[in-house]
Amino acid sequence: MLTEETTEGEQILIAIEFCSALQAGNQAWQRSGRAYSSARANLCPYLYIIDFVKYELDANRNRKALRFPNAAIPYSYCNASKYWQYPAIQVYFKSEEFQPEFDALLQTFDTSLFGEQDVSALLYGLIYNKDVTPIYSALLKKSLKVLDFMAATNRTNSYSQQDWESIHNDYSGNILAFSKQHKQFPFTKKIAQKSISGHNKDVALLASQYSIGIASKDLPFGLIPSCHRIDFADGLYSLYPEMDRDFYHALAVENDLIVCMFKGFKPHGDDARPDRGILPFITMLTSETAEILTFIYGETSVATLKKLDKNILSLANENGLWNSIVSLSDFIILDAPLIPKTDGAQNIIRIIQNKANKLAALAQNSNPSNMLVSPIPTHYTENDVDTFLHIIFHHIIPHTFEGFCNPPGGDWSGISLIDSLNPFYGTEFRWLTLPRVSKESKRPDHVTVLFGLKEQPLIICTESKESAKNLEPGIGPALENYMKDLLSYPPSVERKLTSGTWTISSSPVNALNFCFASIGCFLAPASFNLSSISGKCNCDVLIGFDITPSSNRCRIQMKGFSEIGDELTKYLTTTIQNNILPINIFDVV
Asked: In whole angstroms, what is the distance from residue 53 CA to residue 114 CA?
């Protein structure tokens, strides 16, 4: 976020978010919530920068196909920006895997649509108080042209390039009117066999019977046109006879209705964060006046259910997914297994008429207040642990290469390694579209390569947590296993460090050419006994960070629990103690 401090306080100039993850499934609309809230709240323009393009991989990390987000997603940004003072725009940057000579599908893409130079000019203009309106207009036009390219590759049961042109030009962006006029396919919600419970499959079939698909058959929402809405309401009433009459009468009217179905919650009850963006995406694609019935069927915890029953608005204030649901749904049906699960237990069902809450949320239109905040943190979290790691390995410890970095501003999109004993020469190999876990392994939060300590480059795999108790059992070997497993597959791309040009890679990288070490780190008082958890997590090194706000310093205690752990601890301790740069805020105890 770029801000300016003025006599009236700190003013937000622009919000920028970057993601290099594969734009597939619910990941494609994960940022729609922030785009919608930033621009609609009249805070500032919002840019969502996307790496273009990425490949979907099979189980053996072979490229299956290029994956593009559904064209409805960039169009939703352009459509909604017409109604706001500030735009929300998807911007496309050239990714490592954009190789037209490798993939014929990319040979027709106009590379002038990439937005690196536009964003650079935009930031320059904002900093030097120049008129940047033409740049926003140019970025919106580029986004629409990229949409055309995506739509040209669409499969059956998705709108074509000509359809999107008609929506934009002939229907003035009214996608619901276009959908009702053309009726190309029904809305068909696919529910995995393992996720079928309660009436979710019945509701999906009912919606398919009366619905019209919007943009794509694969999207988790569709339109019940006004002529079928009462029949749909009757069908729901037969499935849920506990539905009260007020809910039924509000639902059974002759207006268009959008039905959105998603799990929303993971098997342990925590919310699937990408699903926070589905309702903002629908609203941006259609309008805020569209009526929406939201059906959630993912596992729900007892704690969440108690909060829902006690005060749904309070729950919305505490949980990002429920905030999205309550703010943008006219009707809510929760039909989900309760966890912890009990054999033979029935799904819990809640049927909520939510129109008043939605109207109240959309009516809120407060002007942004002074954004200046105290520089003194009120509390510390895992983010601070990540930031300390980044400072240490990027700024204090010499001869290192950060191949994977978790803190805000870091990049989790791929893991890079260097095949040389010198971090400034050789070849950088990069693995993209990363699995989160594989067999007996877990993706590290940080991957750092240290040169010179051993005869081979040392790959340091680090897990960061807010507290020691959160470190998983056996996490040390699991981190190393992840990297060794990843190295058993060819990298996605490579580049000479002296040139910077990426090419598709087929070069093997042998794990035997590296040494490995694992680190577990967390916030803990200097008195904490690191040895008390060493047997549980089995890391080579454990690090505790103890923040001293009064002195703006951080005390570190480190201890090795293996031969390589002892050697690494001694090196880190000596290097930190001898570093006199102002950024070194660490005191080793």
From this structure: 11
- State residue 294 phi and psi, 5-degree precision: -105, 125
Q: Quick check: 448 and 462 in contact, CB under 8 A?
A: yes
pLDDT at 46 over 60: yes
| Other CB atoms within 10 Å distance of the CB of residue 164 | 24
Give the Cα separation of 70 and 276 in Å (integer).
18
Other CB atoms within 10 A of residue 309 CB = 11
At 380, the amino acid letter reads Y
Q: Please report the sign of the dihedral spanned by the C-alpha atoms of residue 94, residue 95, residue 100, residue 101.
A: positive
Q: What is the DSSP secondary-structure string of 499-522?
A: T---EE------GGGSEEEEEEEE
DSSP state of 442: -
Q: Are 148 and 161 in contact (CB under 8 A)?
A: yes
Alpha-carbon distance of 543 to 446, in angstroms, equals 14
Name residues whose C-beta falls within 8 Å of residue 249's C-beta, 6 or more positions apart in sequence. none
Strand-pair category, 541-548 with 515-523: parallel
CB atoms within 10 A of CB 265: 25
To the nearest whole percent, how much of the chain has pLDDT over 90? 71
Q: What is the residue whose two structure tokens read 């962006």?
A: 173
Distance from C-alpha of 187 to C-alpha of 261, rounded to nearest angstrom: 11
Taking the C-alpha atoms of residue 589 and residue 585, their distance in angstroms, rounded to an integer, is 13
Tokens of 317: 């204030």
The C-alpha atoms of residue 209 and residue 214 are separated, in whole angstroms, by: 15
CA distance 525 to 514: 34
State yes or no: pLDDT of 528 exceeds 80.
Answer: yes
Q: Is the peptide bond before 87 cis (omega within 30 degrees of 0)?
A: no
Angle at 310 between CA 308 and CA 297, to 5 degrees: 15
- 94 phi-psi bin (left φ>0, alpha ψ -120 to 50, beta other): beta
- Give the integer Cα–Cα distance in Å for 421 and 429: 14
Pairing type for strands 88-94 and 46-52 reads parallel
State the DSSP string of 51-72: EE-EEEE-TTS-EEEEE---TH
Give the closest residue to 463 by CA, choosing from 412, 504, 521: 521
43, 38, 221, 14: which is closest to 121 by C-alpha?
14
Q: Which two tokens stand for residue 540?
A: 């080579």
Count CB atoms within 10 A of the CB of residue 62: 10
Neighbouring CB atoms inside 10 A of 102's CB total 14
Token pair belonging to 461: 């795999």
Whole-structure pTM value: 0.86
Confidence of residue 423 (pLDDT cuts 50, 70, 90): confident
**DSSP category for residue 375:** S
Q: For residue 61, is pLDDT > 70? A: yes
- What is the predicted pLDDT for the residue at 366? 57
